[in-house]
Amino acid sequence: MEREIGYLSFLDREHTIAGPDFSRWLVPPAALAIHLSIGQAYAFSVFNLPLSRLIGGGASAPGDWKLSTIGWVFSVAIVFLGLSAATFGRWVERVGPRKAMFASALCFSGGFFVAALGVSTHQFVLLLLGYGVLGGIGLGLGYISPVSTLIKWFPDRPGMATGLAIMGFGGGAMIASPLATMLMARFDHIAPHGVAPTFVTMGALYFAFMMFGVFTVRVPRDDWHPEAGRAQTAAQRRAENSKRVSEQRRAENSKPVAGAARGREHPNVVAREHPNVVATEAIKTPQFWLLWVMLCVNVTAGIGVLGQASPMIQEMFPGVITAAAAAGFVGLLSLANMLGRFFWSSLSDYIGRRATYATFFLLGAALYSLVPSTGHAGSVALFVIGYVVIMSMYGGGFATIPAYLRDMFGTIQVGAIHGRLLTAWSTAGVLGPVLVNYIREYQINHGVAKADAYTVTMYIMAGLLLIGFVCNLRVRPVDQRYSIDARDPVTA
Amino acid sequence: MTARTRIHLAIAWTLVGLPLAWGVWQVFRKSLDLLR
Question: Residue ranges per domain, chain B?
């Protein structure tokens, strides 16, 4: 079925197998092209106000969409991200990264075009179906498509490789937010607030950028591993030299080449260290659900800060922090979120995944409990530094999870398993804001001062992180009976 | 690594690095308000 359209055969997995000259360092930029694009989702809020004033112009008028209604577009997109990642994970593993990235680009850009039609005709259902459903499916496909390929290319540094890609998702919002603002200002005279033409332009731009990723990505040969790649390069160099020296010298040089060939015959050591568990079996293991809870509490706690960052810093430091400075604080948190994805996931390659998550949960719980006190003490610097570290660990939690999954379940269907685990993100995306807003409202209704209400919320977030810490402690290697190696020795 | 691969690598990293650097700069510029 996948190969029935001949002119699209370049998307097939067998047409994406890397040649001998291919550098594995081309795969991270290919993955970044996808993640930087779909990361736009986090900047959707930049459209909220203009979308609520399409009829009224300067202010909302009767018939305009309410902000609470528009808020559903982002929520639906995140829910469909999780659902599509969970549903299409095995398909992505089967067809390879190029076809999955292409499908993601079609859905994500198509979502913008349908949403533009919805804005032009002022039909909310089209906006919701376009950006929320179709775009959300593009987000899910795009998020998981490069993960397993990166892990296969970088068995020696899986944390760093997937961290680089997932860092792009954090960075995407930083590009999309000012880009959308610029485009809306540019197209303001064409359509109300320039929203519809901005959607069309962004859809086209992102499609082109994602195509760069589609055409760049390659999968490694089955027998490829980093040492073999280096040995082959050395062998090629020696072969070139041998043309310029005598027959006897060339014969001497051939000895190490033979050694290198023997090296290539060695099995991939990293792959041997882990069981190979398929997605349907992985969800039957306690390890999968422990990791699910860990991701869920980490995201819930992070959303608790992100969602309240701007009012929190202003109410903690009244008269000191202006609205503009608070916006700067939110920007700084986004930056910490992005850089933390790369830093913590790379560090996990050295200190291990378990130690990395133990740091997130313990240091996180301590900071969530202590940082509000620095606010009460009037120290802006300590307050900002504390939350910068917290947000770096929020991003780090996202970026390190694929490598943790690789350690637990092997590489055979790590993308599909990651897809299923992302339902924890969807759950936290709904649970986090509801929990935070409910606790805060409850506190304020019971006479707690606004600044103190944040403190209680942070204590509850610290408690959630301690649950994550216990789950992390309970993670043990997966029982070999779940591995396909134990079931089918021929496949192994 | 061949010269062609090196050129491909340079183009690929520039293509993703430039927009990312621009986005980071935009955020950093806004964050300076916090210091004022």
Answer: 1-36
